[in-house]
Amino acid sequence: MTLGRKSPQGIGHGSCQHHHPYQGRSVLLTSMHGKQAAIADIFRSKLGMTLSCTTQIDTDQLGTFTGDIERPGTMYDTALAKARLGLADKTAVLGLASEGCFGPDPTFPFVALSTELMVFVDDERGLIVSESLVTHETNYASQTMMSCDDLNGFLDKVGFPGHALIVRPKTGSSVVFKGIQTDEALQDAMTRCACLNGGQGVIVSTDMRAHLNPTRMRVIRTLAQKLADRILTPCPNCQSPGFGTIGHEKGLPCLACGQPTHLIHHEICGCQVCDFREKRPRSDLRAWAQEGECAYCNP
Ligand SMILES: [Zn+2]
Ligand SMILES: [Zn+2]
Prior knowledge:
This protein is of the alpha+beta class. Helix content is 21%, strand content 26%. The longest helix has 18 residues, at 214-231. The model is unreliable at 1-17 (pLDDT under 50). The structure holds zinc ion (ZN) (2 copies).
C-alpha cells in the first residue's frame, strides 16, 4: 500500500509545465457518482487535459459502500479495475478512477478517518500513477437509533440534508434506503425500518457516494490536485511522468542515543517506468526522534 505519502515538494512546477506529455489529451473517468465535478477543472487547468466521464459502466459490480456487494482486493486494486473497465472497449487509452474508504481512525477510534485513492492509467506508456489522501475531513458516521428523537444531534453533525443518509433496520431485513435527502424521506424510511426490525433499532449512516456528499467531493478535489502535480513531475532519469514517493524508510535517529527508531527517516521517491530511486529527507524536515520515542532509551 502507498497510503499517506506526501507529494514531493519543489518539483513538478514551472518549467516542465510547458512540455508535459498530456497537454491537449483526453482522459476517461469511470464514475457513476458525478466525480467529474471535482476533477475536470483540475485536470484542465493543471494538465491541459479534457476529462470525459463514462457512466455506462456499473462500478457497483466491484463492490459498494453499503456492503450489498463485497469489495474484493485493496482500494488500489478496485480503483485500477474501475479505470480499466472504462478503457476496456479501447476507445480511450488514458483512464482515471478513484476509490474511498471510511471508518474509525485506528489511533483515535472516536474520530472518523477518510482514505481516498485516485489512479491514472496510461495504456500507451504502460504507466500507472496513483496518489492517496488520508484525512479527518469527513462526515462519515453510523449510529443505531431507537426512535426519531435519537436523530437530533446526529443530523447536524453529519450535515443533513446537504449530505444524504442511508437507513436500514438493524436486524430482521436486508432492506436499505439510500440517498435520503429530505425530512419526509427520512421519516418514511425510519418508520418502515422500525416496523421491520423487531425492536432492535434502525441504523442511520452517512451516504458516502460522492454526488451525495459535498465534504467527500472536496477531498476528491484536493486529491485530484495532488495526482495532477505528480503526473506533472518527470522522472529525473527517464523523464516519464508520475515521479514521486513510493515508500518510506524507517530509522529516524534518537536525539539522546543516536540509535535508529521505528519512526520514518527518509521518503523513497521512484519512477514507475525505470528503476530510478531517490532517498529524500522527510517532508516535514524532522531529523531526530525524541528520547521517549526510542525503544533503547525508553523500553
Ligand atoms: Zn535513544
Ligand atoms: Zn524513470
